[in-house]
Structures are given as structure tokens and as C-alpha cells.
Write a structure and sequence with these properties.
Number of domains of chain B: 1
Structural class of chain A: alpha/beta
CATH topology of chain B: Rossmann fold
Number of helices of chain B: 6
Number of domains of chain A: 1
Number of strands of chain B: 5
CATH class of chain B: Alpha Beta
Mean pLDDT of chain B: 93
Largest interface: A-B, 28 and 29 residues
Distance between the termini of chain A: 16 Å
CATH superfamily of chain B: Response regulator
Strand content of chain B: 5-15%
CATH topology of chain A: Rossmann fold
Largest sheet of chain A: 5 strands, parallel
Low-confidence stretches of chain A: 138-146
Strand order of the largest sheet of chain A: 2-1-3-4-5
Oligomer: heterodimer
Radius of gyration of chain B: 14 Å
Structural class of chain B: alpha/beta
Radius of gyration of chain A: 15 Å
Order of helices and strands of chain A: EHEHEHEHEHH
Order of helices and strands of chain B: EHEHEHEHEHH
Shape of chain B: globular
Helix content of chain A: 40-55%
Chain lengths: 155, 147
């Protein structure tokens, strides 16, 4: 990713969370991964001032307690949190979910491929895109250097 | 995907617009490209019931009449338009522009590279990302090619 802040992962399924962790490791993404199991836990993390705010949020949609769409509603109405890009990473192909998420300014809606190799490829592109994209208050590093490092690592 | 929605390019600079169109062509993007030269023209297009809503919008920020940030602000309060992902494509490195666009739910903020090869690489990442989102499509032969 563009800077070294953590990536916040909302995922209730332990196996799916491990796949994300492994893919990021395989792609040599060095950002720490913080995993929470639902929207409620994510809000506790995000509103704790002792915790570093993430550079991006990767979120599953179908979760108990507070699901991904409900979480987006809260985060995008919160002045302190709404600028953090949130990317849905889901098995849901439901068009209603997609439209709801985009109406809430989700910054991506990636349907997780079942095949691990394809999943790594999806994560590679997600990482490249959020390395290329600027963000407010991000560290001023050379995009090209970061891109090259990340691209090389992903091959 | 059966029906490909257009990519809406909002750019007042003629050279930058033709460069972006060239890149989309070189990347063999199958979506049609609709070009509007400022925010007002783009809004007219977006609100015209006869025009097809775009898959994504590539948005310059500094434009006459209605700027990119103003267009984004208007779109995000319009129930018919707020679901369309907008990627800022700009030369602006101002922190305030980044704050404002992310406040209004931009889905990416990319600084335009002057060098065409670097610009093409950036556009390729943008297109591949939105392809994974199921919104844009490249010609199949080009999928396996690496730039």
C-alpha cells in the first residue's frame, strides 16, 4: 500500500482471514494486518485514539452483529473516519449489496475468487491501485519507487 | 458482462483528454468512452434520461464552470448518481484537494504522470482494478499481455 499504516480487515470467517493474510504476505505487502470479526469490533478499533488509523479497510459484507453495509453507513457518516477508503471483499454477487455499498461510497467491490492463485492476483491489483492512489495526509514517498517495489514483489 | 457501460472522462484540457483516450485505446478497454469538458457538461450528461449512466468516472479537478470537486459533491447528494465510482485524475498535489475529494467519497486519487509510459502504467492499474470490480472490461487477448 501507499504507506506503512495498518490494513484493517473485517472478516468473521477465520479461514478467509487467513487467506487474506497469506496473500498479502505472498505479495510482500509490508503493512501490518489488523483483523476484526465484525463491524462492531472494527468501530471499537477505529475509535480508539491509541490505535493507528488504517490506510485502507477491507471488509466482508456478511458478518454477524454489524454487517459490512451497516458498518459503511456508520463509518461514512463519521467525520473522523469517512475519508479512509473501504473496499468490499466479498463472496456476495448480490447486485443490491453492490449498489448499496457504492451508494455509501465504498471504494471498491471485489468478488473474491475461490481459486487461491486468482485471489492473489485480485489482491495484487488492489494493492497496486491503493499504492498508486494518493490519500490525504499520506507519507510523501515516490509513487514510482513504491510501485516498482510492490510490482517486483508480486511477481 | 453483456452490456458495457461507458467510462465518463471529464477533462477540460484537450491534450490531456486525448492522452487519456489514447491510453484507454492502447489498453484495449472495451467500454465506450464519453468525454465531457467540464463539470457542467458532465452533469447535463449524467442527468439526461437518454444517456447511459457510466460504469466509472475519470475526473479532472481543475475545470471551468463546475469543478471536479463541485461535481463530486453534487453527485454524492443525488440518489441517481451517488453509486457511480469516481476516480480523480489530476495534476493537483494539494492536500486540500485530497481532503475534499475523500470527504465526498472519491474512489481513488491519481496524479497524472507527464511521461506517457508512466501514465499508461497508472491507467493500466486503474483499469485492472475496476475490471476486478466488474465495471470495466479489456479485450481478451490483452488480458494476458503485460505492459
Amino acid at each position: 500500500m501507499r504507506d506503512c499504516r495498518p490494513i484493517l480487515l473485517l472478516e468473521d470467517d477465520t479461514v478467509d482471514a487467513m487467506a487474506v493474510k497469506r496473500a498479502l504476505k505472498d505479495l510482500h505487502v509490508s503493512n501490518p494486518l489488523v483483523r476484526v470479526a465484525n463491524g462492531e469490533e472494527a468501530l471499537v478499533y477505529l475509535r480508539d485514539d491509541s490505535k493507528e488509523k488504517p490506510c485502507v479497510i477491507l471488509l466482508d459484507l456478511n458478518m454477524p452483529k454489524m454487517n459490512g453495509i451497516e458498518f459503511l453507513k456508520v463509518v461514512k457518516a463519521d467525520e473522523k473516519l469517512k475519508r479512509i477508503p473501504a473496499i468490499a471483499l466479498t463472496t456476495s454477487k448480490d447486485d443490491q449489496d453492490r449498489v448499496s455499498a457504492f451508494k455509501l461510497s465504498v471504494a471498491g467491490f471485489v468478488v473474491k475468487p475461490v481459486d487461491y492463485i486468482k485471489f492473489v492476483e485480485a489482491m495484487r491489483i488492489v494493492n497496486l491501485y491503493w499504492t498508486l492512489s494518493e490519500q490525504p495526509n499520506s507519507e510523501r514517498e515516490s509513487t514510482n519507487e513504491k510501485l516498482q517495489a510492490n510490482t517486483a514483489g508480486g511477481r | 458482462m453483456s452490456l458495457l457501460k461507458p467510462i465518463l472522462l471529464v477533462e477540460d484540457d484537450i491534450v490531456d483528454a486525448s492522452t487519456a483516450k489514447q491510453a484507454l485505446q492502447d489498453l484495449r478497454v472495451r467500454n465506450p468512452v464519453v468525454h465531457k469538458t467540464d463539470g457542467e457538461e458532465a452533469l447535463e450528461y449524467l442527468r439526461d434520461p437518454n444517456s447511459e449512466k457510466p460504469a466509472i468516472i475519470l475526473l479532472d479537478l481543475n475545470m471551468p464552470r463546475i469543478s471536479g470537486i463541485e461535481l463530486l459533491q453534487i453527485m454524492k447528494t443525488d440518489a441517481e448518481l451517488q453509486h457511480i465510482p469516481v476516480v480523480a485524475l489530476t495534476v493537483s498535489e494539494y492536500e486540500q484537494d485530497k481532503l475534499d475529494t475523500f470527504d465526498f467519497g472519491v474512489a481513488g486519487y491519481v496524479i497524472k504522470a507527464v511521461d506517457y509510459d508512466a501514465f499508461l502504467r497508472a491507467m493500466d492499474i486503474i483499469i485492472q482494478y475496476w475490471a476486478w470490480n466488474g465495471l470495466v472490461e479489456k479485450e481478451r487477448e490483452a488480458n494476458n499481455a503485460r505492459l
